[in-house]
Amino acid sequence: MSTRKQYLQRHRETLVLQATVQRNELSTIATHLQTQLQWVDRVYAVGQALRAHPSLVVATGTLLVFATRSNRLHRIGQLVRAWGIFSMVRYQYARFWPFRTR
Q1: Same domain membership, residue 57 and residue 102
Q2: Which of the pair, 85 or 94, is modelled with greater confidence?
């Protein structure tokens, strides 16, 4: 029985060593993936923010529609108009979906 016990002990040691090596390999792969996929986390966070505040999407779209190449005074007028549209959308959004409190 002693030889069987020694065999099992050696086998356990080799398995523990293999597990340690595999754990180290996985940690290096995980750190590499984390650095490579940081932009995915950022895009996901932006998506969650836009999902929580849909008026930001409308305001951004409004700014993109009204933004043309022109002089500064015209752009200031466009920004004022975009802010007015954003305020209306925000008011309407709160009116139609009263369960969202701000």
Answers
A1: yes
A2: 85
